[in-house]
Amino acid sequence: xxxxxxxxxxxxxxxxxxxxxxxxxxxxxxxxxxxxxxxxxxxxxxxxxxxxxxxxxxxxxxxxxxxxxxxxxxxxxxxxxxxxxxxxxxxxxxxxxxxxxxxxxxxxxxxxxxxxxxxxxxxxxxxxxxxxxxxxxxxxxxxxxxxxxxxxxxxxxxxxxxxxxxxxxxxxxxxxxxxxxxxxxxxxxxxxxxxxxxxxxxxxxxxxxxxxxxxxxxxxxxxxxxxxxxxxxxxxxxxxxxxxxxxxxxxxxxxxxxxxxxxxxxxxxxxxxxxxxxxxxxxxxxxxxxxxxxxxxxxxxxxx
Length: 304
Hints:
This protein has a six-stranded mixed β-sheet with strand order 2-3-1-4-5-6, sandwiched between helices. Strands 7-8-9 form a three-stranded mixed β-sheet. The chain starts with 6 loop residues before the first strand and ends in a 10-residue tail after the last helix. Helix 6 runs antiparallel to helix 8 (252-269). It has nine helices and nine strands. The protein is an alpha/beta fold. The chain is globular.
């Protein structure tokens, strides 16, 4: 096969919660699509993004962190992540730079050993450790499984991420352009806007609230003449006490979430946004099949 052939294929990013999958994907495509925070379970759905250059096209699937599920939302997230293994050409398994392989990583290893797809081990966050330690971490993981490649990176700082793209193209075969070259994601703007609001809530709220929130877009409409989008969204939470925390004293917290989100949404849509946020309580929505579907948590296999 010629080196200058146009290559294309699908690449999944998998790993435990909080290892930096969304940060890496945003870095690889050069644009923020997936939301990030220092709280686990930030990514809930499978998010598809597209990177295209003269070498070819890589479609990245950012999956939810694989963890022990405690409710139906958690089960949905884990099933979404694990079902991706068989659908892709290459798997990027992101791990922390460590010599300790815990139960969560062992569970993922078990799945990866059986999947038959080339697995590239990506040791993320190398900006946080001494360089001479990295070889130790590579040795620790390499004892567990034979990887197609092992690549240390820092998604946050962009260290070695261009090399990672080069390696990915080596593993993809000649193929079609699945998306127009200017396509960056298959996510509709409404969905990205909802996720941006949820990210700002995750970053601003205390630890006990974020897992129990979802965001729905009630209205997203450009005014005639253009230049301004009216956007109305609802933050769903599980308890009345959480509603009080989200709104904050004299509405201060809700205002802060709205201000932070509006700036990013304006960058995405390229015009001014009039954002109005509401808060509603829906008790135990994370264990309700109907509410999970209403808030967009639907298995891809069920969508047809």
